[in-house]
Amino acid sequence: MNDIVIETQNLSKQYGNLLAVNDLNLEIKKGEVFGFLGPNGSGKTTAINMMVGLLKPTNGKVIIGGNNAPDDVKGGIGVMPQEIVIWDNLTCMENLMVIGDMYDVPKDVIRERVHKLLTDLQLIDKKDALSHTLSGGMKRRLNLAMALIHEPDILVLDEPSPGLDPQSRRVLWNYIKTLSDGKKTIILTTHDMEEADRLSDRVAIIDHGKLLILDTPENLKNKIGKGDIVEIKLRDEGMNKKIVQEIASIDEIEESKEVGGKIYIRALNAVKNLSTIFNLITSSGGDIVDVKIRKNTLEDVFITLTGKELRE
Ligand code: ADP
Ligand code: MG
């Protein structure tokens, strides 16, 4: 039981008629990267804000490190919020010094710690730059440094990478990996299946505030959305429904449905079945304008569970 750092029991949040988080029961293990994957509005931010004690649950509770009060261990959690929160008219260095002071980081270690964080996050050249002059990606990295200044055991990252340029994204992902190798517990929310897949030891997929499934990315892809994916776009989308049904009757097809205006087919050996599929479409009078074949991803797990794409 000691290796559970955060536990939620029947955790729920209601806003008026909306159940934003619906009966969430989770155990976050020490040292893991725990990913929350779900579309916008699925309740990720609400859930983690309750988990770190920033928001009061309507029902249920959060148990942190065996304690009942998140306040007791607030110093042990660092949060990088979804919206960037920095003091625009302070330099990078000053932002970190101020936040370090708020967390009572001892004076004799603060400078060294700030220097290391800025170096690790590739911001050291910008240490004296006013933070409003930074690029979006740099601001986000600064926000991450600020979440780490008190060396928390648990780090919460709420959608760390939307809007990041590829370089910032790579720096961020690599850095998150080194933190996790350094035994920090990391909770990450994202609607980006690649991010969830690359970084998480376990992924909780949520939709409409409800936990749909929880497992390692590998297990999810091997069990739920297994196979290759073929996506076919017809000139006339009106034919999708009929053709989807006909394809479903082919023996080796795991799944055939209409997703995002396209015909979406999942099969264990898609390539082998391609000619059968094409023949069937052509003989039904369908006119193919685009075909994609790819390996399955966590997005396909989500599609299999909900029938819709993560990003709509
Ligand atoms: P996510 O982080 O997955 O995008 P959120 O947790 O932000 O989702 O929101 C979940 C749902 O709760 C959404 O429908 C959102 O509009 C609603 N919601 C979030 N915060 C509030 C609030 N303070 N008042 C009313 N509704 C809210
Ligand atoms: Mg959110």
Can you describe this structure?
By secondary structure, the chain is an alpha/beta fold. The protein has helices spanning 44-51, 92-102, 107-120, 136-148, 166-181, 193-199, 217-223, 240-248, 270-283, 298-306; strands spanning 4-15, 18-29, 33-37, 59-64, 77-80, 154-158, 185-190, 202-207, 210-215, 228-234, 253-259, 262-267, 288-295. The strands form three sheets. It has a six-stranded mixed beta sheet, sandwiched between helices. The chain is elongated and about 75 Å long. Magnesium ion (MG) is lined by residues 44-45, 82, 158-159.
Layout of SSEs?
Elements: E1 4-15, E2 18-29, E3 33-37, H1 44-51, E4 59-64, E5 77-80, H2 92-102, H3 107-120, H4 136-148, E6 154-158, H5 166-181, E7 185-190, H6 193-199, E8 202-207, E9 210-215, H7 217-223, E10 228-234, H8 240-248, E11 253-259, E12 262-267, H9 270-283, E13 288-295, H10 298-306
Helix pairs in contact: 2-3
The chain binds adenosine-5'-diphosphate (ADP) and magnesium ion.
Tell me briefly what this model is.
With 312 residues, the protein is α/β, with parallel strands linked by helices. The chain has ten helices and 13 strands. The chain folds into two domains: 4-221, P-loop containing nucleotide triphosphate hydrolases (Rossmann fold); 226-295, Alpha-Beta Plaits (2-Layer Sandwich), CATH 3.30.70.980.
CA-based gyration radius? 23 Å
Distance between the termini: 39 Å
Number of structurally distinct domains? 2
Kindly provide the name of the CATH class of the largest domain: Alpha Beta
List the ions, cofactors and other small molecules found in this model: adenosine-5'-diphosphate, magnesium ion
Principal-axis shape equals elongated
The residue fraction in helices comes out at: 25-40%
Q: Per DSSP, what share of the residues sits in E-state strands of 2 or more residues?
A: 25-35%
Number of extended strands: 13
- Low-pLDDT stretches are none
Widest sheet: strand order? 5-6-7-3-8-9
N to C succession of SSEs: EEEHEEHHHEHEHEEHEHEEHEH
